[in-house]
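worker-3 :: picked Sigma-70 family RNA polymerase sigma factor
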Amino acid sequence: MGPTQLADHDVHRLYADHHGWLQAWIRRRTGCSQRAADLAQDTFLRVLSARAKGIAVYLEQPRAYLATIARGLVVDQWRRQQLEQAWLDTVAAHPGAVQASPEHSALILETLHEVDAMLRGLPGKVRRAFLLVQLEGLPHRVVASQLGVSDRMVKKYLAQALVHCAVLEAELDGLLVE
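worker-3 :: tokens ->
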């Protein structure tokens, strides 16, 4: 069939024919029927969003198409849960620290998710150089040796990562919009 623009009846048919299957597919991967229901709905929202943007959809294998979207959503949720657990573990490990309000905690978690997404969007060596310098405090020459590149290349990698950080900061401050 190839790529096509979905009409209203196509979306309804896709949902009616595959929603139950998709929800069961997600439930097998997550072990949670509530999470499966939410992610199945989110999958169809992505389909509707693509349709609204005029993005062509491949309907030759609708289950493969839906599973690809759902798989990404499951991975994103798993990643979010890991990040949130790491935050909770960090807070619990410092009982003397000031406890943040639920609103402040939500802002911190959202910022952590944005930083995580930004880091995942960087090329591998750029991300690794940035983390080695910023988190490990390693000098450029040591990072260069670990990555098998020149000191100059490490500086380029760091500049590239810092540009991404500046864009993220501007987005978080509401200065940039998509």
